[in-house]
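As the next step, I needed to go through one protein, both as residues and as discrete backbone shape codes, included below for the reader:
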Amino acid sequence: MNLPNILTLSRIGWAIVLVFLLEANSLTGNVLAVIVFTIASLTDFYDGYLAKKQGLVSDFGKIMDPVADKILLLTIFGVLAHIGMVAWWMFIVIAIREIGVTVSRLWAMRKGQVLAAERAGKVKTVVQIVAVSAILLYLVAQQSEYCSFWFYNVQRIWLGVNYTLMLAAVVLTVYSGLEYFRNKSKI
């Protein structure tokens, strides 16, 4: 097990930690959730970077990197839907796409094919990370006494930005899923 693969697998552990932090519904939990999510998101960049730089690209990494991303993001989207920060329909659409692509990748792996993440999928993941980050920062600002004097004035705008980012994430999620299956059908 090399460092890039350890970083990839760590995202699954971070996902579990995020559930407990967000369900605590406290300022401390939300601040820690921002920190943990930032660390988990950075592992997504560094696992690939290190694997390429050190010549450690592996079939395991090609499969597990997108799977770990999906576990992390589906977990946090599920919790955010549960606490009312993400619409359930958005979570369901994202979950259907992510599960469908993951099952397809695993099925291809059984046939000896390794399908790495495509560009559209990577862009989708970045937009999802940005959307989650904006929502987490909103939760921190909402509960922080240091933000209370200005938060009320920008709350509606911030919620609108969060919704727009989530809508963009859903659209890119659907698009990248369709692109994945279109490209896969050419193989």
User: Anything to note?
Assistant: DSSP finds six helices and no strands in the chain. Residues 19 and 61 are 25 Å apart (CA to CA). Residues 148-185 form the longest helix (38 residues). The chain has a mean pLDDT of 90.
